[in-house]
Amino acid sequence: MLGLTMGVATLIAVITIVQGANVYVETKVANLGADVFQVGRMPFAVTDYEVILKAMKNKRIYMEDYLALQKQCAECVLTGASGSMSTRARLGDVEQLDVNVYGQTPSMAEIDTRTIELGRPITGPEDDRTTRVCVIGATLRDKFFGEADPLGRTIKLADQEFTVVGVVERGGAVLGQDTDNFAIIPLNTFLKMRGARYSLTLNVKVPNDKVGFERAQDRARQIMRARRHLRPNQDDDFFIGTKDSYIQLWGQISGAFFAVFILVSSISALVGGIVIMNVMLVSVTERTKEIGIRRAVGAREGDIMKQFLVESVLQCLAGGALGIVLGFVCAELLNRFTSFPAAVQPGVAALGLALSSAIGLFFGIYPASRAAKLDPVEALRAD
């Protein structure tokens, strides 16, 4: 029962964790809307390192590409550009490390799914004049200002002073990573800090039009290929990514982990089933006289077989029930006391009970069959 309990507990915990992570990735990691796609120099969702190495030779994407896409792509309803870097933020003696600074065009306020909770987004004139203003995440607000009003206050990003004009609504942690440790600044200000030849990511939104969304991707690809003078037989030297790209990548990664953990839990369940079978065989030997008496008073082979199968299944169900409770407890503890998500769903319990019943039936057939085939006369002679 202990082996079966551990196997079912592992199975339940893994399924709940994977299901929770899937929901979390869909709502948090894939921060793009379903109607947004990105164009970038590097792949957005890939696990092949060779593809990454090859992509490093691609041409960079510049502001001129953004302006061309904005002007020539009639299907692109909203077009924006962004860049990112990691730096430190400071206010007086208080410092925050590894802050993600995003340079964005003003149009990104309508494309980005994040919501401004306090203040306002960056404006066009501020971007044109390379004004040093910023919209900060909840982590920077908590670190520097606490409950005080941050609007109009000045912080340092990469040793340059920026005035806070807005605060983004808290997003929380994603798989242990803080998603609120960031600041958004005007893209032209960002390029002034990083250099005009920094490679950008282009963002396009086509709301409420699936057909138009596909057409916009095709048109963006045509424009980019024309600007890079690619021949028809040449592959794209840029990448287009959508929300589905991230979800698909996560599905591949989680699927691999899921398969490994299922293998481990299956081995535990298999060991538990074998042990139960051996215990049942010993039980048949020790209860030979009991079996003989039952056969002598009219029990048929099927009755004996049913008796031992029921005992085997009940043992497995007891172990499975304990495993279900243990698995749910582990998943709930992970969900409550760590940043790792776990979605506890009652339907998984039915799977655990079904697995336990199947193991009980499979490994109980042989001992039950041996008990049923005992000769009544020989069984009654047993000590």
What are the SSEs and their pairings?
Layout: H1 2-29, E1 36-40, H2 49-55, H3 63-72, E2 78-91, E3 94-104, H4 108-111, E4 116-119, H5 124-128, E5 133-136, H6 138-144, E6 154-157, E7 160-168, E8 173-174, E9 177-178, E10 182-186, H7 187-194, E11 201-205, H8 210-227, E12 239-242, H9 243-286, H10 288-296, H11 301-337, H12 347-372, H13 376-381
Parallel strand pairs: 3-10, 5-7
Antiparallel strand pairs: 1-11, 1-12, 2-3, 2-6, 2-11, 4-7, 5-10, 6-7, 8-9
Nutshell version of this structure?
The chain has helices at residues 2-29, 49-55, 63-72, 108-111, 124-128, 138-144, 187-194, 210-227, 243-286, 288-296, 301-337, 347-372, 376-381, and strands spanning 36-40, 78-91, 94-104, 116-119, 133-136, 154-157, 160-168, 173-174, 177-178, 182-186, 201-205, 239-242. With 383 residues, it is of the alpha+beta class.
Features:
383 residues, alpha+beta, 2 domains, six-stranded mixed barrel, two-stranded antiparallel sheet, 55% helix
